[in-house]
Amino acid sequence: MLKKHQLLYNAALEQRITAYRKQGISLNYYQQAKELTELRAELPEFKALNAQSSQNTLKRMDRAFQQFYRRCKEGVEKAGFPRFKSFARYPGWGYNTHGDGWRFLIEEKAYLKLSSVGHIRMRGKARTPGKPKTLDILYKQGKWYASVVFECEPERKQNAMTGAVGLDWGVETFATLAHDGNDYTAIENERHLRSALNQLKGLQRDLSRKKRDSRNWSKAKKRVTALHSKIARKRHEFLHQTSTKIVRENSLIAVEKLSIKGMTAKGGKLKKGLNREVLCTAPAAFHGMLKYLCPPGCKVEETGTRYIEVPTRKVKPSQTCSGCGKQEKKPLHQRKHICSCGIHLSRDETAARVILNWVLGRESALCGEIALAVSAKHETLAIATA
Ligand SMILES: [Zn+2]
Questions:
Q1: What separation in angstroms does the CA of 250 have from each of 96, 166, 307, 361?
Q2: Which residues have a beta carbon within 5 Å of ligand 1, which is an ion?
Q3: At what angle do helices 29-42 and 51-74 cross, to 10 degrees?
Q4: What are phi and psi of 147, to 5 degrees?
Q5: Angle CA(131)–CA(134)–CA(138) in degrees, nearest 5?
Q6: Model pTM score
Q7: Ligand 1 mean position to 321 CA, how many Å?
Q8: pLDDT tens by residue, 161-187
Q9: Is residue 140 within 8 Å of 93, Cβ to Cβ?
């Protein structure tokens, strides 16, 4: 099926190029989709493909053109004309409607039923069960994936609505949290990350010693990509779990606004090459997840949690004392913050506290809402204990 979709994609692309060269006509998706019906009637090999999936493939090709036109319009220098796709790089195909060519079955176990393939056992579970809508089959680095989109009513567990938290990115740790009250939590990096990164380095060294395109080279290459995607997958899982936990436990989350420059400066010499690739992309991905979990503009009561980004240059979390507000530059190697006002904290804890303080001080209206939520909670507690 992958092969057929690849052929279809390339054939449709070729048809557009030929039509333009020979007749000066720009074909569009609808013209091509219409012809697809005839093509399917004539050629049995395409008839075997699901009709909607075939349209989907044409649509993908059409999208490549739309993006090309858009870039041309914007005057991008290398607009990048849509290219023919090799089988090795062809990513997969999609289905538009549940029940047409595929079915998601939950019996004792979950199965994906794919027409002309069969039943495939599914691993994991949908986080929020709902109505299956679309399916994409992906082929990546020698493995098959099915990505199912569900339509669902998001079911939000009512938050405890207690905590407000400031988050600072760590160098050695993943991040440090400053809670209201006077507590701190350090979130450690995943335990196996560093050893996995070292292992990856070893594998890449292996690869660089092999002769390019030789048998051994492609074997080594496979090992590198396999481990690379494993690390990326684990990383994603970790970020997902961590962000969900923070959102579940807090009604306000304050983080530093990310800047590319700040990110590389913060890692300093510690993060080079691959380490940087894995570790430095984490903050952006993490912020994305937080933003997704707490959509901007929502009231505390609606989502349970407010997410705020603090302007770094204005607030200077790494240079400000969380006790007295005095500002002083600290070199990166200085891991402690000791101030004459009596504050004695780690560098990351201070920064996290400064971020939280700024938000709590500035968003006074919001602060009121939280204070209300917190006091309401305390009241119930008081009644309970009474
Ligand atoms: Zn101070």
A1: 38, 10, 10, 17
A2: 321, 323-324, 339, 341, 343
A3: 150
A4: -115, 115
A5: 130
A6: 0.59
A7: 5
A8: 568 899 998 767 889 999 988 889 999
A9: no
